[in-house]
Every structure is written in structure tokens, then in C-alpha cells.
Design goal:
Blueprint: H1 6-20, H2 24-31, H3 37-41, H4 53-62, H5 67-72, H6 80-97, E1 104-106, H7 108-117, E2 123-125, E3 135-137, E4 145-147, E5 151-156, E6 159-168, E7 174-183, E8 189-197, H8 204-218, H9 225-236
Antiparallel strand pairs: 1-5, 2-3, 4-6, 5-6, 6-7, 7-8
Helix pairs in contact: 6-8
Length: about 250
């Protein structure tokens, strides 16, 4: 508990409350803590008391932000776009954990095969296209990015979200690149880069947690809507057998 950053938590609560137009006193009353508790929490000199876990969960639910983000992400250092991404990653993690989203594995081996055969929306061929064409991963962020590990994709509305596990060529730190990919009935892919994050990014820990959740999700059994409906229909049917029919 000694490593717990109360000051960061206090600052984050103030930022979230201000954004929502909620007074700290109202939160304190709802949580049943003393007046001024949240202000004292943000004071770096306050070394006498640790925050109440019930309060942390209340804040998490009230502002729709994960406990992990609340305790580890410095919202004061984020731009408005980064705050939006942080909220996006939180929702992805939550929906993954409750199985509303089921990710698909993009194994490193499969991605390496794309270097030879293509067949992936994020891989492009050098020109001219001929039997000896080399396919390479197209990074919208770093020209020398290489695939370093398994990646994952999940369907969101009418598009795929791809989370690529990457490394800058010649570097030593693994990171993430995220893309939206739209695929129409002609098979044409429209790619929209979302963001990249390496360990020096405030968003990296969130993406690392999301990647772990996606890895676990990808091991779950997947059922199409048609298969699920057929199974449910069967389960709801009467299985009583009329022995007089034999």
C-alpha cells in the first residue's frame, strides 16, 4: 500500500468531477466521508490515511472509468483526444471482461505469412506486383515498425478494430498500434489509424491491460448468431417423447 499514489487519485477525481460539473462535497456526502476528504486526498503531504476502497469503486462507477485507470493514469497530463481514447479503452476492457466483445487472435505466425502471401488489410505489397513481390506491414505511425507478437481484432459496428503488437525496427520496447478497418461488399479496405502507444505513453498501461483481456477473450468459444439461435430454439423445445408412437 505504500506505493499507492493518493495524490494522483485525488487529482483525477477533481478533474473528472469538474468535467461532469459535480461538486466534490456532493461526492463526499454520497460516499459518507468527511467534508474536505477529497481535497486532503490530493495533498501530497497527506500521509496519514489511505482512501476508502468503497469510495474508489463509487468514483469508478460514477464517472464510468476503470479502477485501474483511476489509480494509474494521470488525467491532468492528457489532451482531450487522449482522454477520449482512455474512455474508449476502458469501455473496450469492460465489454471484453463481460463477454460483450469477443476478440479474434491474429497470431504472429499468421502475420508473418502475410509477408509472403498478403491477404491481410494492414499488409501492402511493394510495386510492381509480381510473383516475387514482398509484402510488408503498413504502419501509419512508424516507417520501420515490425510485428513483434500476437495481435487481436474485434468487430465494432460495421468495422474491425485491430490491435497490433509492434516494435520499432532496431528498438527494444514493445508497443501497440490500433486501427479501424472498414471492409465493404467488394472487399475494399479503408484504414483509419487510431493511435500508437509505447511504454513512455500515459495510455500504454491501459492498452497492455486491454491486450491481456483480448488474449483471454480470444480463447473463448465463438458462436455465430445463427448457431446461437438454433441452439436456443432447441433448448426451448419440448423434448418429451410420445411412447405410444413406437
Amino acid at each position: 500500500m505504500s506505493s499507492f499514489n493518493k495524490s494522483l487519485l485525488g487529482k483525477n477525481i477533481k478533474i473528472l468531477a469538474s468535467k461532469k460539473g459535480i461538486k466534490l462535497g456532493d461526492i463526499e456526502n454520497e460516499a459518507g466521508v468527511s467534508a474536505g476528504y477529497l481535497s486532503r486526498l490530493a495533498n501530497e503531504d497527506n500521509k496519514n490515511s489511505f482512501p476508502i476502497m468503497d469510495l474508489i469503486f463509487l468514483i469508478s462507477k460514477k464517472f464510468d472509468v476503470s479502477v485501474n485507470s483511476l489509480l494509474s493514469v494521470d488525467f491532468s497530463s492528457l489532451t482531450p483526444n487522449e482522454i477520449l481514447l482512455s474512455q474508449f479503452f476502458d469501455k473496450l476492457s469492460k465489454d471484453t471482461e463481460n463477454n460483450s466483445l469477443v476478440w479474434e487472435l491474429e497470431s504472429k505466425k499468421k502475420l508473418e505469412d502475410c509477408l509472403q502471401h498478403g491477404g491481410h488489410p494492414l499488409f501492402f505489397a511493394d510495386e510492381p506486383r509480381d510473383p516475387n513481390t514482398t509484402f510488408y506491414y503498413h504502419s501509419a505511425f512508424e516507417s520501420n515498425t515490425i510485428i513483434i507478437g500476437d495481435s487481436y481484432k474485434v468487430g465494432i459496428s460495421n468495422k474491425w478494430l485491430y490491435m497490433m503488437n509492434v516494435q520499432k525496427n532496431g528498438g527494444f520496447e514493445n508497443g501497440f498500434e490500433l486501427y479501424f478497418v472498414y471492409i465493404n461488399y467488394n472487399g475494399y479496405s479503408q484504414i483509419e489509424p487510431i493511435c500508437m502507444a509505447y511504454p513512455n505513453s500515459e495510455l500504454f498501461n491501459q492498452l497492455n491491460d486491454l491486450c491481456n483481456a483480448a488474449a483471454e477473450s480470444s480463447r473463448h468459444v465463438k458462436l455465430s448468431d445463427s448457431v446461437r439461435n438454433s441452439i436456443n430454439q432447441y433448448l426451448n423445445e419440448s423434448n418429451t417423447v410420445d411412447i405410444d408412437s413406437f
